[in-house]
Specification:
With 351 residues, the chain is of the alpha/beta class. The protein contains ten helices and 14 strands. It starts with a strand and ends in a 30-residue tail after the last strand. Bound molecules: S-adenosyl-L-homocysteine (SAH) and iron/sulfur cluster. S-adenosyl-L-homocysteine binds next to strand 10 and strand 12. The site of S-adenosyl-L-homocysteine has 18 residues, from strand 10 and strand 12.
Length: 351
Amino acid sequence: MQPLIGMDLADLRTLLPPGEPAFRAQQIYDALYSRRVRTLAEIPNLPRPLRQHLESSCIPGHLRQDARYQSADGTRRYLLGLADSKSVEAVFMPEDSRDTLCISTQVGCPVDCKFCLTALMGLERNLTAGEIAGQVLHLAGDNGLWAHQKRINVVMMGQGEPLLNLDQVLKATRLLCDPQGLNVSPRRITLSTSGLIPKIAEIAASEVRPRLAVSLNASTEEQRRELMPVTRKYHLADLLETCRAYPLRSWEKLTFEYVLLKGVNDTDADARRVVRLLARINCKVNLIALNPGPGIPFETPGPERVTAFQAILRNSFPAFIRRPRGLDIFAACGQLKRMESGLVELPPPPS
Ligand code: SAH
Ligand code: SF4
């Protein structure tokens, strides 16, 4: 059975039997993404023979909620089941002025950063556009966010390296951003990458694209090679050159993320080197003190070290400290590895 969620208008047209008018595809598209129906029976203007034809080969394709964990700070981590019995994680973070949905682009991740729990899973598979957009549909629906659509903020910072699955990521972005469909502004979608240089050029060339965030995480080539083996192929100097040439839109700044590891990359000298590396890039920096986890051989610096690092950066560009969300339920950055034991699980929603 083919899932409908993830299909664009052109895909839906190919499902119509000969003789059906093309506007039927638009009706299905509206129902899926604008009205967000759960079943084909909820599309009243669809003739019954066409509905039965579709039902014989297609399913709506919503993700299944396998578990939902509630943090003391309001964050919720979701384990969402896929059609092939694999599952993927997504996180809902309510804030004062917006609601952030952190979604995954792959099951696991092959990139092998030494501070990241997801890396310990390896790569299980890429997600489809439907599975990527489906996470937003599920979390926004479960938390009643569609009534306040403008508050929705999406970050592709869950499991996976989005640029290793760029076609599906961009297709999901087009579905999310379509004003006739889910209508999330591209200003409110951010993709974070470990820095796959050729793919950054590809994303730059695409018409509908999210904001770009690059995980820097080190202040020298050698340090970055140790922490992020991907640097052996994609050198830091070339990455920064690509960032300098990246065609930002008028409203956009590039974001750099920097995970602070105690005694490894968190000194004043590191901060001064970061300032030099990012010179002449229109950017801001998000600092993330390491979120620890079993099997991660690093420690978290104290808050005064993090603030001192931020102070040096702030002389040159905006630098923020990312507050960890959902640490108690393994929902924070780099912690998504399907942890289950010892957590508060919410009961399943009434069906
Ligand atoms: N694969 C992409 C997006 C997912 S990771 C990327 O690497 O950019 C999202 C962010 O979490 C990245 O900036 C990454 O550096 C950071 N991160 C990974 N592990 C972390 C950890 N243990 N503590 C804090 N941040 C972490
Ligand atoms: Fe993959 Fe990002 Fe984790 Fe690196 S930090 S292993 S790229 S998810």
